[in-house]
Amino acid sequence: MTPAYFAKVRPTYIENWSGGLCRLSIPQDAVPLSLDEARAFGLRNRKFGRWFGQGSTPPVDRVVEKLNIVLRNYPDGAFVRLGSRSAKDSSYARHYGLKVTCAEAAVRMLTDDSERIVFDLRLALRHNYSPHIFVRQWLEIPAWSEFRCFMKGRRLVGISQYDCKNLGHCPRIAECSGQIREGIELFFDKIREASHLDDLVFDVLVDLNERNSGLAVDVKLLELNPFFERTDACLFSWHNGGDFDGSFRFL
Questions:
Q1: Angle formed by the axes of helices 61-71 and 103-110, nearest 10°
Q2: Total tally of structural domains belonging to the chain
Q3: Burial, 77: exposed, middle or buried (Cβ in 10 Å; 0-12, 13-18, 19+)?
Q4: Is residue 74 domain-shared with residue 162, that is, in the same domain?
Q5: Other Cβ atoms within 10 Å of 169 Cβ, number
Q6: Model's pTM, two decimal places?
């Protein structure tokens, strides 16, 4: 939680993306939190609330009202997360999934028992930083279709299958590896132009569609992470400075 660590991760939060990067991603709306609201969310955490002090828990009615207004833009449901990352480790997410249709469900997921959210809220408060909640269009994302990409010095130095542990070998990736790689490389030109950072780890969603002219590849930006050893390198390694050789790696 040092200032150096926060300076490294903060530029990758969605609220700090450039406009160009936002346009390469999926539809989303931001709900900024005040420092008091961020603390109130932390105090509500069933498991770690004590880390945010003692006393009564302030209401978050204003946040609930804003979330319900924004959620009207997503009648089919939404994915709700902090600008830093999601609460996918919460009990709520494990039992009910990450799709929400009302503010009460979103708040419950973000205040349940997620260590990821607690860490990020404490980090924000320690550095007097106001975090943001993001409401994103809900998408069904097949495990095979997400890829982690590595940019160093504005060069694409690696592409990896994202789900390396649970998915295993995926025939869809193997059969279409050439088109997937080409699609990501073309998309990377837009990332390089829009990025406010020279070094970056970014996750993308690849959609393959059969058309009369052949296989069409549509790529969307999902998330940014810092280019450092605390970011999962997937099928690459950070050992001895990393083995990022520009390849596309999949099982």
A1: 120
A2: 2
A3: middle
A4: no
A5: 9
A6: 0.94
Which amino acid makes up residue 157?
V
- Other CB atoms closer than 10 Å to residue 3's CB: what's the count? 9
User: Is residue 184 located within the same domain as residue 124?
Assistant: no
- pLDDT of residue 212 exceeding 70, the answer is no
Which of 113, 32, 116 shows the shortest CA–CA distance to 67? 32
What domain range is 77 assigned to? Answer: 27-137
Q: Note whether 71 and 50 are same-domain residues.
A: yes
Whether residue 179 is found in the same domain as residue 117? no
Indicate whether 197 pLDDT > 80: yes
Half-sphere exposure of residue 46, counting CA atoms within 13 Å on the CB side?
10
Tokens of 223: 């998330």
Three-state DSSP string of 174-212: HHCHHHHHHHHHHHHHHHHHHCCCCCEEEEEEEEEEEEC
- Is residue 131 domain-shared with residue 147, that is, in the same domain? no
User: Angle 61-71/35-43 helices, nearest 10 degrees?
Assistant: 100
